[in-house]
Amino acid sequence: MSVELHHGDCVDILPSIPPQSVDAVITDPPYPEIKRAYGKLTVDEWWDLMMVVCKETRRILKPTGSAVFILQPNSKHVGQMRGWLWEFMAWVCRDWNMVQDAYWWNTTSQPVYHTRREIGLMRQSIKICVWAGKQNCFRDQSRILWDEAQSTAMKRAAGRIGRIGRQNNPSGHSMDERKCFAVSLEREGVTPYNILPIPNAKNNTSAGAHGHGAGTPLKLADWWVRYICPPGGTVADWFLGSGTMGLAAIENGCDFVGIEKFPEDREINDKDNPDYFGLSKRRIEHARSRIVQGEMELA
Prior knowledge:
8-stranded mixed beta sheet; single chain
């Protein structure tokens, strides 16, 4: 496994990465109009950044490669959403290709200001995984199958599967239980939904525990790596943050290329000047040593 980490702005570094050298780009870019310790982008600045990122990503991806941009919608005011994310999705559909719509559901999302009873809105717990690539881009569904439902296992134990065979529902949709259950047994899992219910872990190995409150969960990073990167391939993240995508890549035996602009010469716990690049290097090196010792666990 090779790990290549770049310290600097991805806009400056991406042109130096060889064409058709990466199998999967999986990244969590900054969102516009969100104030962070490292600054805030206007919507126009965000579009300028992402147009460069997308152009370079398409050049760098292998012919069967694809990219996933993990993004969360936000509001202009309480009760008034911004449209940049849906506009970006429409742009991908029109000017690139959206392979499928996919979503991450943070099942541990906490109530915030706009959920107060006098305001009456819902918890925001969904991030959109904008999956861009060619129609025939690589994906291996067999690596991300879900365990069957407990009710299905109980029906099989009771010998109740397939008594009726093909069933017709009022909607007109029909399903042959025997065939479906036989396939799931053969594959040792069932086809996943396009909504991924993964909690944003807050244990001592998560990004949040290392000073990155908006970090992607390692289990989500691992899921996408297994799905869209072939074994032994190369994963890249242009907004490395605390290094989670690098951990997922090396845990799956993949090479990794990461870029992070925030400086190494800052204290990790300095919230005004986050040292994400230095943090990424330390976490990835620690993970590599744990893999050698057989201790790596997803968090």
